[in-house]
Write a structure and sequence with these properties.
7-stranded mixed β-sheet, alpha+beta, 3 domains, globular, Alpha-Beta Plaits, RF3_C, binds guanosine-5',3'-tetraphosphate, 8-stranded antiparallel β-sheet
Length: 539
Amino acid sequence: MAVSGLSGLKKYLSLMGFKEEINRRRTFGIVSHPDAGKTTLTEKLLLFGGAIRVAGAVKSNKIKKGATSDFMEIERQRGISVATSVMGFEYRDYKVNILDTPGHQDFQEDTFRTLTAVDSVIIVIDAAKGVEPQTEKLMNVCRMRKTPVMVFINKLDRPSRDTFSLLDEIEEQLKIKTRPLSWPINSGADFKGVYNIYKKSLNLFDADVQEIQPAIKFADVNDPQLETHIGNDADELREELELVEGVYPEFDREAYLAGDLAPVFFGSALYNFGVQELLDAFVEIAPSPKPSVTEEREIKPAEEGFTGFVFKIHANIDPNHRSRIAFVKICSGRFERNAVYKHIRTGKNMRISSPTAFMAAQKEVIDEAFPGDIIGVPDNGNLIIGDTITSGEEIHFKGLPSFSPEMFRYIENADPMKSKQLNKGIDQLMEEGVAQLFTSQFNGRKIIGTVGQLQFEVIQYRLEHEYNAKCRFETLPMHKACWIECDDPKLLTEFKKRKHQKMATDKRGRDVFMADSGFILQMAQDEFKDIKFHFTSEF
Ligand code: G4P
C-alpha cells in the first residue's frame, strides 16, 4: 500500500490498528451436555481473564432436573443469563468473547442461534460419560456451519473411561477427526496430571493444592526426569504417546479451522486443572473473526463498511420499563456510537446512542467496537432476531435457522378482556425466539411449536407477569412441522388442497406441513416425491 503525506500515514496506521483489533479477537461458545462442566469451565476461564476474582461468581444458569415448574428458577435463570450472556475479557494480547448458551435442552434453539454468532466452539465432555445425546445435537449444528471445534475432556479427577476409547467415541459419534494435544496420566484417585504434547511439559495434579503450579518442561517425553515426577507411570505414558503419534496425524491447524479436526485437551475444571493450557492453546490456534455469509455476498471482517446482525433479544429485563436488549454481532467495520446506521428490514436510519459491551461480566457503554464483538443495543421493539444493521449497504445475513419444533399446542386467550395484551405478548415472545408461532390454514387458530415442555411454561408465566395476559394451551398431538417447497406450483397447490387440514403458515408467511406422525410424514414424502420437506427454516 502506497502511503503519501501525513493524512495518508494516519489512515494507514488506523487501518493497521483496525486489522490488529480484528486479529486479536476470539469469539466462541462453550457447549456441553448438561452437567459435563460447562459452567465450571466458563468460570475458570473468567478467572484467568481477571473478569471475576473469586470462584463461585458465575452461578450455574441451568435449571436443575425436576424443577421444570419452578418459575422462580426460570426467572432467576433469565436474570443471570442477561448478565452472563456475553463475557468479554482481555487475556495476554487477546480479546476473548465467550457467548453463553443455556444448558437446558428445552432452550436449545437459543443455543443454536447463539452458535451462529461464534467463530469457534469448545465442547466439554465428561470423561466418565463420554459423548452424550446433547453433545451430538450441538455438534451437528457446528458441522452444519463448519465451525472449528476444540474438545475439553473434563473431570479426570474422577474415575474416567480409557482415553483411546473416549477419542474413538468422539470420532465416531461426533463425526469429526480428533488430535489430542495433551494426555492424561491415569484418572480418579490415581490421576497424576496431564502431559502437554505440543509444549512437551507436565502439569502435576494435586487435589489439595489450590494454586496453579507451573508446568515442568522436558526435552521430550523420553527425558529421564519424567520418572522423578510420575515414577512408574512414565513408561506407560511413553507407550501411550508413541501410540498417539502412530495413530493420529500431526496437528493440522488448517483442518481444525475448516471444522474437520478437533484438538483435544484433558483436565478437571473443578480443580482448575488443565484449564490454562486449554486457554493458551485456544487463543493461539482458534480463529479470529471469520467472513460471514449474506444473501448477497460474503462479508469480510476487515471491510470498512459496518455490518452486524441481531442474534438474540432479551425483553423486559426490567419489568417496570418495557426495556429490551438486542445482541448484535459485529461482522465487519468499526462500530461507532452515535453513527448513523441503516436498519435493513425497515429501511430506516438508526443511531445507537448507548451501546453496551459486556466486559468483566458488567455492562458498560462503549464508544466503539470491532468485528467479533457483541454489543447490546437498547431497543423498544424495533429489532427482531435476524435483523441486519449496516452503514448503508443492502445486505441480509443468512443462517439463523428455526428448527422444526416437536411439541405443539393451540394457544387460547383465557381472559377475553386482555386479548390485545395477549397478542402483543405472543408477538414479542416469538420475536425473542422463545418458541415458534404458526397459524392453521384450516381453522385460523394459533399454534405454538416448541422443542420442550418448559417453553410452554415460560410462555404462560411471562404472558401473565410481563403482559398481564392469560393464556390456555390445548394439546395438539403432532409429530413435526416441516417447511415445504416445490418448483411446480400446480403440485404444491394439489398437496395443499389434499392436506388442507394440516397446513399452517409460519411468521414469514411460508407454508408449513404439520404431520401427525412419522408414518404420515413418510407417506406424504413417498407420495409427493417432487416436494421438498425441510426440517429447518433456512434452505
Ligand atoms: P454444566 O454447566 O455443564 O451443566 O455443568 P456444571 O459446570 O454445573 O457442573 C456439573 C457438576 O459437575 C457440578 O456439580 C460441578 O461442580 C461438577 N464438576 C464440574 N467440573 C468438574 C470436575 O472437573 N471434576 C469434578 N469432580 N466435578 C466437576 P454439582 O454437584 O451438580 O453442582 P455444585 O453443587 O457442585 O455446583
